[in-house]
Amino acid sequence: MANNIEKITSIEEQIERLKEKRKSLEKQMQQNIGAEVLKMWNVESEQEAIEWIQKMAVQVNGSENQAEAWDGHESEIR
User: What is the pTM of this model?
Assistant: First the structure.
């Protein structure tokens, strides 16, 4: 019985480590994408980049409600 509890605990710890690894990889991906966008667009400020992204989001999503559209899309992935 104690052996089974140890196995369960070990599995739960592995799951937590994998969740943390996933968060880390997602964060790194977002940073890499952001850096590439700034470089390719030759954007000099965060505000300028945000304005460009908002303009493009309207075109991609078909409405000015891009923040809600992205939130919905993001939750579908997870």
Answer: 0.58
